[in-house]
Amino acid sequence: MQTKRDDVGARPFRPTCLLLYEVIEPVDHERPGVVRRQYRSVVGYLWPVRDRCNDRRDLSGQESTGSPIKFLEGMKSVNLFPSRNVSNIVPSVARALLGLVDDRGGSPERLCRGLGFSYEDLRNQNLLLSHNQVRELILRCEKQLRESALGLSVGARQTPVSLGVAGLAMLTCETYGDAIAYAVDHQVAAGAMLDHLVDIRGREVCIDVSPRLFDLQIEAFLVDEAMASLVGISRCVVGVDFKPLGVDLSRPRPENEEPYRRFFRCPVRFNAGRDRLTFDSDWLNVRLAGYDRITCKLVQTQLNTLLKRPVGRLDLVESVVNRIRFDMGARATQGELANLVNISDRTMRRRLSRQSISYTQLRDATRFERARDLLANSAMTVAQVAELVGYSDARAFRRAFKRWTGILPAAFRERQG
After folding, report:
1. What pLDDT score was predicted for residue 117?
2. Are 111 and 238 part of one and the same domain?
3. CB–CB of 44/38 below 8 Å?
4. Same domain, 228 and 352
5. What is the spatial distance between Cα 393 and Cα 61, in angstroms, rounded to a whole number?
6. Nearest CA to 167 among 54, 31, 303, 60?
7. In this predicted model, what pLDDT tens digit does every residue of 174-196 receive, in sequence order?
8. CB 246 within 8 A of CB 272
9. Which CATH number fits the domain that encloses residue 101?
10. What residue numbers bound the domain in which 238 lies?
11. For 127-154, what is each residue's pLDDT tens digit?
12. Angle at 389 between CA 75 and CA 187, to 5 degrees
């Protein structure tokens, strides 16, 4: 892939990493086709950009030996699935949401009652909230405001300042591509409640979002908020002319699509089976106004000292799980997934083995988490759930689910009420 300089002479943007992983050594810019192989926790650099695997082989026939339920119980040390009650979320979404409520004449103080924090507490820079606290706040606001595109409205009003220190640091970057890289690299410190994955595919840049915790009641809100904030903040950084090439949303088509098309100013596809924002890669090289190499580097270094260290920094286990979550229906083999995180199959097998975990366990545990949520909180048929979690055969899914839980999916759904 060729890199380009913009009209004002900014250095070419090099799409150096997937930014979900912590890496010791940078890409060797003298030899852009070479990736240095020394890593602290998990490989994150991706140069050249790899094509996604098109192999759709069905792995549902590969029966695993262990129980994901027992496996999940023993996963506390590696934090495969974050707890819903642990306060580990920077409350950027809560602040933006209650700011909207306040602007519309509502009572943020009233909405916070009984949640364990007050509206005034949101001014505390050290405040962290749990998933369940933010979840209940979102549901209360949806009930009060009765706005179908509430997440879109919350995201649209955000600016780099909404992301706190991480957002301010974005403004010290030389190019828009650098700013996006910085924001994704510090997404947890910025308060993101979804995982963001960046892929550069020729002339297109794709940003996919995926939930860390499957929660269908608020998933549409979080996706709308994430997509709208990406665009809103981008327009603050590079100008109001920024617009995506397209937006894919997995949520059902709303009764009124116009707010989405009016805000994004591009085709918006619902029931897309994924949540993705795509824009032209030429934007990556746009130079940010007011950039000064010496001063901006100094300010960014100072701001970095103010960033909180993300809670539960991603390691190999969580990186593998994230990849499975992002494209669960692809049914990737272990070798294909190792290729996607840029390590060899043998290395991934060895490093997982050190934690007494296998790829099959991770795959099944991730499938189980998603299947359990879909069965409990949606009206999808068992066959539909099976397909979404990576099984082409509903019978194989039923066998796997009974192996995991001791009961069939239909019986599990009945027990959930």
Report:
1. 85
2. yes
3. no
4. no
5. 9
6. 303
7. 999 999 999 998 998 999 999 99
8. no
9. 3.90.1520
10. 92-304
11. 888 898 999 999 999 999 999 899 999 9
12. 60
